[in-house]
């Protein structure tokens, strides 16, 4: 099987070219590909398939040629991935499947059509405006931390840490607890603290994240957008530009009246073939 490996601020993916939707992708195969010791290793899999050739993308084929079929590293499906969308677009451009010129490039996802544009070495994607809709809590060890539920087409819970608790001190080797009534399909949990002011931004935050289906990752694009929305709310703003530092680098989020732009590096690092017979699953 041919593959490409890419990442956005350390959030890494195995991309599988399957333009005509002929690949028999299963949860077991996805988990095996993402295995960091016995597979290629990644936070998730991005299947590159024409929207018209995928049952979940066919309804969007009139708006976007390509569908981002995103799977978490445990083999579960996900609605959206901001960093994944940026890496997906980098692949389309580098593979000659799309051109960066002109209007923003549309990409179909389970959360709807998103649009991308090239900004020098960065790729930016436009997603829905984050919707802050409820208060809740996350539990971590003996801690109970208040947070805000945020909808970006996928679920998030953003927890601002108290001044007495350091971000680096959190133990994210196990999944945080959450309210299953509010998040029946699970949730991405972001933990944040304020950073030093940065010129040209309205807020600056530092973030760690435990992603649903992938454990702690070096970055989460939709998570950064959720964090930006909370940071702007706490600054008494509805819109603005926020720098979000994650363990894998820096993302910039611009929240407008009707959308949210996520910008940062998107890098392809390798292409090759994987021997399915060598994976820890019978594919």
The helix count comes to: 3
Report the order of strands and helices.
Answer: EEHEEHEEEEEEEEEHEEEE
Question: Uncertain spans, ≥5 residues at pLDDT below 50?
Answer: none
Give the overall shape, derived from the CA principal axes. globular
How many discrete structural domains? 2
The portion of residues forming beta strands comes to 35-45%
CATH-defined fold name of the largest domain? Diaminopimelate Epimerase, Chain A, domain 1
Structural class: mainly beta
Average pLDDT, to the nearest integer? Answer: 96
Any idea what the CATH superfamily of the largest domain is called?
Diaminopimelate Epimerase, Chain A, domain 1
Specify the CATH architecture of the largest domain. Answer: Roll
Q: Would you mind describing this structure in some detail?
A:
With 283 residues, the chain is mostly beta strands. It has 2 domains: 2-123 and 266-276, Roll (Diaminopimelate Epimerase, Chain A, domain 1), CATH 3.10.310.10; 131-257, Diaminopimelate Epimerase, Chain A, domain 1. The chain contains 3 helices and 17 strands. It has helices at residues 27-34, 82-94, 221-234; strands at 2-8, 11-17, 44-50, 66-72, 105-109, 112-119, 122-128, 131-140, 143-151, 155-160, 188-194, 203-211, 215-217, 240-246, 249-255, 259-265, 267-273. The strands form 2 sheets. Strands 5, 6, 7, 8, 9, 10, 11, 12, 13, 14, 15 and 16 form a 12-stranded mixed β-sheet that branches. A 5-stranded mixed β-sheet has the order 4-3-2-1-17, sandwiched between helices. A hairpin with a 2-residue loop joins strand 8 and strand 9. The protein is globular, with a radius of gyration of 18 Å.
């Amino acid at each position: 099987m041919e593959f490409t490996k890419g990442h956005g601020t350390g959030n890494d993916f195995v991309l599988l070219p399957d333009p005509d939707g002929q690949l028999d992708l299963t949860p077991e195969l996805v988990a095996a590909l993402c295995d960091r010791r016995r597979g290629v290793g990644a936070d998730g899999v991005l299947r590159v398939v024409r929207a018209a050739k995928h049952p979940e993308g066919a309804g969007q084929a009139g708006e976007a040629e390509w569908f981002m079929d995103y799977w978490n590293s445990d083999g579960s499906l996900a609605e959206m991935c901001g960093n994944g969308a940026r890496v997906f677009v980098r692949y389309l451009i580098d593979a000659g499947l799309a051109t960066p010129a002109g209007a923003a490039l549309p990409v179909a996802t389970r959360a709807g059509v998103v649009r991308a544009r090239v900004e020098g070495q960065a790729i930016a994607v436009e997603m829905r405006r984050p919707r802050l809709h409820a208060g809740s809590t996350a539990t971590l060890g003996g801690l109970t931390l208040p947070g805000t539920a945020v909808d970006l087409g996928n679920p998030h819970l953003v927890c601002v840490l108290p001044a007495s608790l350091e971000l680096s001190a959190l133990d994210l080797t196990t999944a945080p607890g959450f309210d299953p009534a509010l998040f029946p399909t699970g949730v991405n949990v972001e933990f944040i603290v304020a950073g030093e002011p940065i010129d040209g931004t309205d807020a600056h935050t530092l973030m760690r994240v435990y992603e649903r289906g992938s454990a702690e990752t070096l970055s989460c694009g939709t998570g950064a957008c959720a964090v930006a929305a909370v940071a702007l709310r706490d600054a008494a703003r509805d819109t603005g530009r926020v720098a979000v530092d994650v363990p894998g680098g820096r993302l910039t989020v611009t929240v407008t009246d009707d959308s949210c732009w996520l910008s940062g590096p998107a890098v392809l690092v390798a292409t090759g073939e994987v021997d399915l017979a060598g994976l820890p699953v019978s594919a």
